[in-house]
Each structure stands twice: as structure tokens, then as C-alpha cells.
UniProtKB/TrEMBL annotation:
Its EC number is 2.7.7.-. The keyword Manganese does not apply. Residues 820-846 form the Transposable element P transposase-like RNase H C-terminal domain. Residues 1-31 are annotated as: Disordered. The keyword Transferase applies. Residues 1-19 have a biased composition (Basic residues). This is THAP9. Residues 618-735 form the Transposable element P transposase-like GTP-binding insertion domain. Pfam families: TNP-like_GBD (PF21788), TNP-like_RNaseH_C (PF21789), TNP-like_RNaseH_N (PF21787). Coiled coil: none annotated. Residues 434-588 form the Transposable element P transposase-like RNase H domain. GO terms for molecular function: nucleotidyltransferase activity. It is an enzyme of class 2 (transferase).
Length: 892
């Protein structure tokens, strides 16, 4: 029924007839009947759908109106009610066009086979069914709503409005003829069959999407349900469609489903190949630890094929990533034209003043980097660019971490960097080889000269220490195309090789001098300054397993080269870990069963002593390991002193009772990884130092009192020992309010006396207490009540040697001594670079180590220690810009 629209307080928009003006005295319209007044009001105020209601009708009132002004509202309400009744009578014959169209479709009988009209639906719904005797299955349906727009659904999926079906059809379907045109055109199309083969759908459940790639959120297709579809002679219960399937085609399959078919077929072939390989039970040799010498010819061929397949797969992934990157650059990249380049140069020139204000220090990396970028913008060609040595070192370090990332950084255009070819000449300035090389010794002297180590005013700067240790390498051979040799055999210098050949001939008479063993370790020697930051890898040797017999000639040759050779440096100490070969090397210089911590240096002009030092961080780790096995973990020790146990269980109880679940933790740094020892955790120095800290000792004493007295005393002794021998800078003791971390400035320092006397006496009294303990204990059981004898011997060697070295340097004129310079942390950090070469490469080859040593000599102090290494990286490093030129490979 049309709505009644009543306008109030709105002036009439109808044209009014022009009325002649009359004299007010002669105007008698006020005397008009009431019925005429109401009719005039209706003409002005009442309107229904734009058509005026005929006001010529009679109004019946109960009483004649006496006062129009007072009763006008009542009359208007009565008029409105009568008007609505009249409107209903007028519009009762109106018919909805959609209902009329639906009635015409039903009565005309235009919907014939194969289409079926659903008469129960509110809309016009026409269906096309599949010929199935078991159940009704809808192929498609056409739905026309009251807005006369048509929608086509194929297998319950709406057909896109961009489909070719709609070309040439009317926009609205408001007649039977238009509907017949749509149905006739639908008969020229058929449903896309998708990919209905069983082998292509074997591993795709109904409703499951087909992922585009591993880890991708998008999908390429999906598997639909069972519609009992039939197309000619083809019948299928389910199929896999593309997400962009056209649904209706004039062939068998749409182009998106054809593309998806290729993907499904390739996945099918890969699955079949994987099943075939699993049935053949061929082992995976890619990560096998079996040496090539122990593999048969068939196994070697199989491994080559597996490596080839792996390389092909990785290459395809790289190509795919490169194509994606190129598409991103081409679509979103911005290329600067000549005018924009000039604007960029002007912008950099204008910002130079701001950079100078922001970084006033001339020894600033940011300021140096800005100036080098500005210089590269002003050169006509980068071939003529002369880079600063510090920029070259930094770029060498970046490329060493990841060559692909470095090239991506260069190609991005954000910053300008040297090419890889330029860096190659600096990283290969000398031949990478085992043993002592003349060019390396010359480079060592240049590094020492930069640090003023040959000063006659401060002769104590000339003292250095020699660090040596082994790193595990892959037992593999690498062919060097430049020299034509196989790299990877043991090489222990001239004397060591002769000893090795002699031992081999004594074990097996059939072996010859040309026979050699494949190396498993790499012995690395490093020179470290005592009063400077010199950390220089001197030489490397490929070994099978180093022993004192091989170590002796190598170490003394290195000392001779440093003392009397071109370097002219004074070797004060040797630092290594507590391996059995290293301890035996120390004992060679003394009598049998004699404690020795130094020997006379025959190459020194002043008959100076050469001190042996067992690395202090290694001693802390071995102490923690012995402590962790006391009543816990391996349970090989039951440490005891003066009637009370020194047990790891005390720490575990403290952690579980007061740290793990408590809001307030007396030991904030103590975590589960500190107590549950793992192979990785046993190698971390900071974890051992945090366990044996004064914070843990104070918490134990506060929570458990006298029950843990000896455990608390033991932890405090070890904490002070590590602090006294780990002084790293001038201000750490002041900043942490710990006098044990202050630098040594006098020979009468009380810490030296405590180390030499009190610390050693503590372990002597511990041993005496264990040996005098009442009870039937065997010698092995009594040894298990204290630390291992290797650790105790290392304590004595390190304490005696470091105390003597500190006093010797102070007496030689040094203003202060930092005991951190006596450990081998730089060598451990150096090994971290080997293992992290282009990713987590835990076992590099001998060839990798050789090239890395050459590269790291060029990088120098720019190399940052790995964050996850055994030794924590120093955050308070003082960077100094080095302007001296780098050695470069000679080109002929």
C-alpha cells in the first residue's frame, strides 16, 4: 500500500492562481462554510506519492463547527483518517512487477528440460541437475531476485560477473524473453572438470586447500565435494580446482586449472620419486660422517648423485628468490635520473655541517662513513674510487660473514661499497698456507709498529704472549686449482713431518714417506700484546691429534721467529688450556714429578724467563664441572671439606625454593640452564662465572645458614680468584664497586699476596682435611672429595706465573697491568669466526681455516666476536680509525 506522506509547516510548492487584490472592507471570505475551509486546507497540506487527493468529498461531523481556531487539530485528524481509507481503496488494484514476471514464467511454460523451476522459492530459481539415479545433484542454478539481477551458481559457487557468459546479455532480466536468452546461452557452456584423476587427489582431502609454497598463507586451489558430476563419457565424484577456476568453459578445462594441473603432476612425480628412494633404502650420504676413503665406488657415485640433486634444488630456490627480488625491484624500485642524482649530491653537501655537529670526534665511524659516501657520489666512476682502509676492513668483515648479503647490500643502491673484486686483492695479499710465512711476519711487525710497541721510551710495550689451541675441522680433502695440491693432509712443519713419517714407518713397514693422514684438527698460534690490543694469528698447522712431541718444535720455532727474527718482539708467557698434551709440554722443560711453571728463554738477550699459564676461564669451567658432578649429574664426586659437604644440590635447592617460582629472586641471573648442564652450557664461560659468584654465595648463606658453610666459602674463593685474574679495563672496579677488578699498579698489591699464599693454602688445607678424614675410604674416593688434580695443578701454574708476570711488568716501568691479557679469549673468539663462516659452519675444512686466517689478518680489530661464542663479546671496545694502507695482492 502506498505510504501517506503528510507535510507539516511546509509551504506548498504547487502553482497558485493569481488572485486579484480586494478591499479588506469588501472581503467576506470569513463567512465561508466550514466544509470549504477544510477542503482548501487539504489542497495545501495533503499529498500521496506526488498525486493530489481529490478533495471533493463530503465530511460528516457530529456537530457544526463553532470555532475554527480551537477545533482545527481535531478536524485535521479526522481528515487524515478518511484520506488513508480512501487511498487504500484506490491502490488495492496495484500488482508487483516481480510477482507478475514470476507468474508469467510459470504460466508460459518456457522453462523446459533440462531445466527445472523451483516454484517454492521466493525468487525465480531455475536449476540444472546431473543425471543421477541415486540422489539429486545440482549442476548449476540461476537465481533472479526482486531487483531483476541474475546470479549463476555452479557447484554452489557463484559465477563471477566478469565471466564471458555475461557478454551480450541484458543487465536486468525483467522479461521472459531475457530469461530464455540466458538459459540458451548457458547450454553452450559446460562445467570445468578441474583435475579429477585419483592419483592427483591422493593426498588432498575434501575441502583442503592446495598451498602455494611452504610456509605461504595463500593457496593455489582446493578439492571440492562429491557432486556426481557427468560430462559426456567422463564422470567423477570429486575434483581439484584452482582458486581462480572459471567454472563454466566451452571445453574440458579452464586455463587456471590447467596451470594447477602442472603443479599437481610435478608434486606427484616428486612423491613417487621419494617413495621409490625409500623402497630402495638408499642411505643419505649428504650428512654422513663416513670418510671417502672408507666408501666403495658405488657409494661414492651415489653420494655424487645426491649432492647433484641437492645442488639443483638449492639453485632452483636461489633462482626463484632472485626472480622474486627482481620483480619487487622492477615494480617498487625507484631509479634516480641525472637531475635527482644532482639533488642527492646537493643534499649530502648541505647535510655535511649537521654531520660534523652530530659527530664532532674525528675518530668516529659515522663521520668516516658519511665522508666516504659523499666522496663516492662525486667521482665520475667507481673504478677511480680510493677507499679508506677502515672501510675496506669493514667490508671485508661483512663479506666474510655473508657474501650474498654483501652483494645484496651493494646492489640495493642504498649505499656505495667496494666491489668483491676489489676486496679479493686485499683478502689474498699473501699465499694462504700452513706454517710460518715471511709475509705474515712482516704484517705482524706493521701491526706492532702501529701500536708503538717498538718505543724506546716505554720498552714494556714490546712484551707479548703466545696463545695456542686446536680447533676441530672436517676430515676432507680440497683440490687447490692454483697450486695443484690436495689440501687437508697433516702438516706440522719440517721437524714435525719428519717425526710423523718416522712414527708411521715404525708402525707399518709397508708405508712410504709419501703416505699421509687426513687432518682432524687445526693448531693455531696467536700473538697477543700484554700492554696493547695486538691480537694477530701467526700460523696454523693441520694435525691428526697434537702431542707434546709435535708441539715442542713448533712453539720454540715461533718464539725464535718473534725474538730474533724480523718481528723483534719479546715473548713473556705461553697460554693454553689444560689438555694433557699441553701439560706434558710444560713438564718437558723440567724434571720428572717436578712442579714447573716457567723456563729460561734461550732466545732472550737478558736471559728472561718464559712463563707457562693455564687459561683461567678454562679453569673456572673445569671447576664448575667438578662442582656440578658433586652429588649430582654424573655423581662422580662427593666433595667434602672440614666435616661438611660441598654439594651441587645446595644450588639446586636454592633455585627451586627461592628463585624459580618466587616473585623476588635473590639470584636474578641464576636460571635453569645454569643448573641443568648440557654440552653447550659446559662450554660457556659466563654461565660458569655466574654460578661461582658472590651473589649465589650470599643467597645460600642467607637462606640456609651454617648447613652450607663450606659450599659458600668455596664459591667465594672461586669468585675472588676469577675477579683478580680477569681485570679487563681501568674503570670496571670503580663502576662495579669491586676492588678485586681494579688494575694492578704496584708490586705490593694485596691481591697478589692473596693469590700466591691464601688461595693456594685453601686447596692445600682441603687436601689435608680429606686425607685425614676418618673412615675406610679408598684413594680414589678421597680424590673424589676434592677438585681434579688437573684443575689443582692448573691453579698453581696460572697463579704463580701471572703473579710473577705482573710484578715483572710493573718493575719494567708499566703504569698498570690488566690480567685479562693473560688468557686466551682472543683465540676463542678467532675460532668463532671460523665456525660462523657464511652461517653456522661448526666444522670448517683446513682450506677454510687457511683462507680465514689470511682474511682475518686483513680485517684486524674490525671483526666482532660472535654473540653466541664461548666467550662473551666486549661491549666497551674503543674503536680507533686506522689510516695506514692495507697490504694488497700484487698483479703482474
Amino acid at each position: 500500500m502506498p505510504k501517506l506522506r503528510k507535510r507539516r509547516d511546509v509551504p506548498s510548492q504547487r502553482k497558485r492562481k493569481k488572485v486579484q487584490s480586494t478591499d479588506l472592507h469588501n472581503d467576506h471570505s470569513y463567512s465561508m462554510p466550514n466544509e470549504d475551509i477544510v477542503q482548501l486546507c487539504l489542497k495545501e497540506e495533503v499529498e500521496v506519492r506526488g498525486e493530489r487527493i481529490d478533495p471533493d468529498f463530503t465530511l460528516y461531523t457530529a456537530e457544526p463547527l463553532e470555532d475554527i481556531e480551537c477545533t482545527s487539530l481535531t478536524y485535521q485528524e479526522e481528515v487524515a483518517i478518511d484520506m488513508i481509507e480512501e487511498t487504500e481503496c484506490v491502490t488495492s488494484s496495484y500488482t508487483d512487477p516481480f510477482d507478475k514476471l514470476k507468474q508469467d514464467v510459470v504460466q508460459s511454460g518456457c522453462i523446459s528440460s533440462p531445466y527445472v523451476l523451483d516454484t517454492t522459492s521466493d525468487s525465480i530459481k531455475i536449476m540444472l541437475l546431473y543425471p543421477s539415479a541415486e540422489r539429486i545433484s545440482v549442476k548449476l542454478n540461476v537465481m533472479i531476485n526482486r531487483d531483476f539481477f541474475a546470479k549463476v551458481f555452479v557447484h554452489r559457487i557463484q559465477l563471477s560477473q566478469d565471466h564471458d557468459l555475461w557478454i551480450g546479455l541484458p543487465r536486468v532480466f525483467d522479461s521472459v524473453k531475457h530469461i530464455q536468452t540466458l538459459l540458451m546461452k548457458l547450454q553452450s557452456y559446460s562445467v570445468c572438470t578441474g583435475n579429477f584423476e585419483a592419483d592427483l587427489m591422493a593426498f588432498i582431502p575434501v575441502g583442503t586447500p592446495v598451498e602455494s609454497a611452504e610456509g605461504s598463507a595463500s593457496s593455489q586451489g582446493f578439492r571440492e565435494g562429491d557432486f556426481e558430476a557427468v560430462k559426456g563419457t567422463i564422470s567423477y565424484s570429486s575434483t581439484v580446482r584452482s582458486m581462480n577456476c572459471l567454472l563454466l568453459v566451452q571445453g574440458n578445462r579452464c586455463s587456471p586449472c590447467t596451470q594447477l594441473r602442472r603443479v599437481l603432476i610435478s608434486r606427484k612425480h616428486r612423491r613417487e620419486e621419494k617413495e621409490r628412494k625409500s623402497k630402495e633404502n638408499i642411505p643419505n650420504y649428504l650428512h654422513s660422517t663416513i670418510g671417502h676413503t672408507k666408501m666403495s665406488r658405488t657409494e661414492l657415485i651415489t653420494k655424487i648423485h645426491q649432492q647433484k640433486d641437492r645442488i639443483t634444488t638449492l639453485q632452483s630456490e636461489i633462482d626463484k628468490t632472485q626472480r622474486k627480488f627482481q620483480r619487487e625491484v622492477s615494480s617498487k624500485g625507484v631509479t634516480l635520473d641525472f637531475s635527482q642524482t644532482l639533488e642527492m649530491q646537493d643534499t649530502m653537501a648541505a647535510c655535511t655541517t649537521e654531520i660534523m655537529k652530530a659527530f664532532p670526534d674525528a675518530n668516529s665511524y659515522q663521520r668516516l662513513f658519511w665522508s666516504e659516501q659523499q666522496k663516492s657520489m662525486n667521482v665520475k666512476s667507481l673504478k677511480g674510487m680510493r677507499w679508506h682502509p677502515m672501510i675496506l676492513r669493514w667490508c671485508l668483515y661483512l663479506r666474510h660473514k655473508s657474501s650474498a648479503a654483501y652483494e645484496a647490500l651493494r646492489d640495493s643502491g642504498f649505499i656505495t661499497l667496494p666491489s668483491s673484486r676489489t676486496l679479493f686483492d686485499y683478502s689474498h695479499y699473501t699465499k694462504s698456507d700452513n706454517g710460518f710465512l715471511p709475509d705474515v711476519v712482516k704484517e705482524l711487525k706493521n701491526e706492532a709498529s702501529k701500536r708503538d710497541m717498538y718505543s724506546t721510551v716505554d720498552p714494556w710495550k714490546n712484551y707479548v704472549g703466545l696463545l695456542f689451541d686446536e680447533i676441530k675441522v672436517k676430515s676432507d680433502l680440497v683440490y687447490d686449482k692454483h697450486s695443484g695440491e690436495l689440501i687437508g693432509y697433516c702438516n706440522l712443519d719440517k721437524v714435525g713431518n719428519q717425526i710423523m713419517n718416522f712414527e708411521r714407518s715404525m708402525k707399518d713397514t709397508s708405508s712410504t714417506e709419501t703416505d699421509a693422514d687426513i687432518a682432524k684438527y687445526m693448531l693455531v698460534l696467536m700473538v697477543r700484546g700484554v700492554a696493547t690490543d695486538l691480537k694477530f694469528p701467526l700460523a696454523g698447522f693441520a694435525t691428526l691429534s697434537i702431542t707434546a712431541d709435535y708441539l715442542y718444535p713448533i712453539i720454540w720455532k715461533a718464539i725464535r721467529i718473534l725474538e730474533t727474527g724480523f718481528a723483534q718482539l719479546k715473548v713473556l708467557f705461553l697460554t693454553c688450556d689444560g689438555a694433557s698434551a699441553n701439560r706434558k709440554f710444560f713438564n718437558i722443560h723440567g724434571q720428572v714429578n717436578e712442579f714447573i711453571h716457567y723456563t729460561t728463554n734461550p732466545y732472550a738477550d737478558d736471559e728472561r724467563k718464559l712463563y707457562f699459564i693455564s687459561d683461567v676461564p678454562h679453569l673456572v669451567k673445569t671447576t664448575r664441572n667438578c662442582f656440578s658432578n658433586s652429588y649430582s649429574h654424573k655423581n662422580t664426586r662427593k666433595m667434602w671439606k672440614d666435616g661438611k659437604d660441598i654439594s651441587w644440590m645446595h644450588l639446586l635447592k636454592l633455585f627451586e625454593d627461592h628463585c624459580e617460582l618466587s616473585l623476588y629472586s635473590p639470584c636474578p641471573k641464576l636460571t635453569r640452564s645454569h643448573l641443568d648442564m648440557t654440552t653447550y652450557g659446559c662450554m660457556k664461560v659466563n654461565i660458569a662465572a655466574q654460578v661461582l659468584s658472590s651473589t649465589v654465595a650470599n643467597a645460600l648463606e642467607m637462606m640456609y645458614g651454617d648447613n652450607v658453610t663450606e659450599t659458600v666459602n668455596f664459591i667465594r674463593i672461586m669468585n675472588k680468584f676469577f675477579d683478580c685474574l680477569n681485570v679487563r679495563n681501568l674503570y670496571e672496579g670503580r663502576n662495579k664497586r669491586n676492588p678485586d677488578l681494579d688494575p694492578y699498579t704496584t708490586v705490593n698489591d694485596e691481591r697478589l699476596q692473596w693469590l700466591r699464599v691464601d688461595f693456594i693454602k685453601y686447596f692445600d688445607s682441603w687436601e689435608q682435611s680429606v686425607m685425614q678424614r676418618a673412615g675406610n675410604f679408598s684413594r680414589k674416593q678421597r680424590k673424589g672429595m676434592q677438585l681434579s688434580h688437573q684443575t689443582l695443578t692448573g691453579f698453581k701454574i696460572s697463579v704463580f706465573s701471572i703473579v710473577d708476570c705482573v710484578k715483572f711488568l710493573l718493575e719494567s716501568g708499566a703504569k698498570f697491568v690488566l690480567t685479562h691479557h693473560f688468557n686466551q679469549d682472543p683465540l676463542e673468539q678467532h675460532f668463532g669466526h671460523y665456525r660462523h663462516r657464511v652461517g653456522d659452519n661448526n666444522n670448517p675444512t683446513v682450506n677454510d681455516v687457511r683462507h680465514m686466517m689470511t682474511s682475518m689478518r686483513a680485517v684486524g680489530a674490525q671483526a666482532l666476536a660472535p654473540k653466541r661464542g664461548n666467550v662473551s663479546n666486549q661491549r666497551d671496545r674503543n674503536f680507533v680509525i686506522d689510516n695506514t694502507s692495507l697490504p694488497k695482492r700484487r698483479t703482474y
